[in-house]
Design brief:
About 30% of the residues lie in helices and about 15% in strands. The longest helix has 14 residues. The protein has three helices and three strands, in the order H-E-E-H-H-E. A three-stranded mixed beta sheet has the order 2-1-3. By secondary structure, the protein is of the alpha+beta class.
């Protein structure tokens, strides 16, 4: 396997809100980046909770990670499904 680049993917998931996913993700991503590794971020479903510099409603975690990791991809690529809080029925 000489000359072959091995890529590893880490998935961090939870069925709970505020379970600490970002708390775990941020230091792992920063450490990998510090070691010279290419780091990306993907959140399949998000909640529109903040406004980005272009004035669009986006997921707060996505906007934070995009800045932190200096990601060039648009928010729609990083988080393709974004719901408004009003899209959910609260009990």
């Amino acid at each position: 396997m000489e000359g072959k680049i091995l890529k590893k993917t880490i998935y961090i998931a939870s069925i709970e809100e505020l379970a600490g996913k970002s708390f775990v993700t941020v230091p792992l991503a920063l450490k990998a980046k510090e070691e010279g590794k290419k780091v990306g971020y993907f959140k399949p479903v998000g909640l529109a909770s903040t406004v980005n510099p272009q004035g669009h409603l986006v997921d707060e975690d996505v906007e934070f990670m995009k800045k932190l990791l200096d990601l060039k991809e648009e928010e729609e690529i990083i988080c393709p499904i974004v719901f408004l809080e009003t899209d959910f029925i609260k009990n």
